[in-house]
Amino acid sequence: MMGLHEVEPDEYLERRFAYPVYTQLKGRDLYEHEITGNYSREDFHQNPQNYQCRFLPMQRKQTSY
User: Fold this and answer.
1) What is the pLDDT along the chain (65 residues), one digit of tens a residue?
2) Integer-rounded Cα radius of gyration of the chain
């Protein structure tokens, strides 16, 4: 897309940009194990009740440029 730049999820949360950006989130960006804080795709699909959502910081990010 013209004028739109892809950035890593951590970059999206930590930096401010003077131009439009987007990020692509994967399972490890969205969920973490309640006890270990890690993410395992196989374990997540077998035991989703043990994972908590990490999406809120992405949702709260101010997107002004």
Assistant:
1) 578 999 999 898 889 888 899 989 999 999 999 999 999 999 999 999 999 998 876 666 655 54
2) 14
Taking the C-alpha atoms of residue 37 and residue 9, their distance in angstroms, rounded to an integer, is 17
Read out DSSP for 2-61?
TT-EE--HHHHHH---SS-EE----HHHHEEETTT----HHHHHH-GGGEEE--HHHHH-
Among 44, 5, 51, CA closest to 24: 5
The answer for residues whose C-beta is within 8 angstroms of residue 58's C-beta and 6 or more apart is: 9, 12, 13, 23, 25, 29
Give the predicted TM-score (pTM) of the model: 0.67
Which residues lie across from 35 on neighbouring strands?
Answer: none
